[in-house]
Write a structure and sequence with these properties.
The chain is of the alpha+beta class. The chain contains 7 helices and 5 strands; from the N terminus they run ααβααββααββα. Strands 1, 2, 3, 4 and 5 form a 5-stranded antiparallel β-sheet that branches.
Length: about 200
């Protein structure tokens, strides 16, 4: 039992040394710069791996108090694609909105939007197909939503939604390649210097 404990301690020590060495090697030598071309190429080559698990939307979302001013103006601004109306809506939101999201070029999970807005639906996909401009209210305020784009789950996820994920995948692949190269180099050096024994 004592021998078994000693062996396990030695294995743990060796694993820890290897981990520290690999971590320092990665810190020193890993290239963490990834170009947009590399990201696009990875996305195009692996699209089957980027099927959506959830519905996503591009949306303008504004919540205002029930007694907020200029509600008729808001009803026009949130539906408009005019840049001046967008600027007016942004100014209004900073003054009067209790919550808002105006990043219309950004994809977000439809379920995250549903956590904010009291929309009741049993078929989310059908709801997205049939609703673009949405106005609902409850005791806490009035909600205005403009669904500017959507993608249904099981369809191919857009590149902009996967960019951070692809960056991590590329960096992780480089890490594994660097560790493999380090292990092969260490093995070859040991063989050259007769510091390794091979048992048949």
């Amino acid at each position: 039992q004592q021998k078994d404990v000693s062996r396990k301690l030695e294995e743990y020590r060796n694993s820890l040394i290897t981990y520290i060495y690999e971590s320092e090697l990665i810190r020193q030598k890993l290239d963490t710069s990834v170009t947009e071309e590399e990201i696009k190429a990875y996305y195009n080559d692996h699209q089957a791996n980027f099927l959506l698990k959830d519905n996503i939307v591009k949306a303008t979302y504004v919540k205002v108090p029930l007694n907020a001013p200029k509600l008729e103006k808001v009803r026009g601004w949130y539906k408009s694609s005019n840049s001046r109306d967008s600027s007016l809506l942004i100014d209004y939101c900073h003054q009067f909105a209790s919550d808002f999201f105006l990043g219309t070029d950004d994809w977000l999970l439809f379920d995250e939007l549903l956590k904010k807005v009291p929309i009741k639906t049993y078929d989310k996909e059908e709801y997205l197909r049939n609703n673009r401009f949405i106005e609902v209210s409850d005791t806490s305020g009035i909600y205005f939503i403009n669904i500017k784009g959507f993608k249904i789950k099981e369809s191919i996820s857009p590149l902009s939604f996967e960019r951070d994920n692809i960056y991590s995948l590329i960096i992780n692949k480089r890490k594994l390649e660097l560790i493999d190269a380090m292990e092969k180099s260490a093995f070859d050096d040991a063989v050259r210097n007769n510091n390794i024994k091979i048992y048949d």
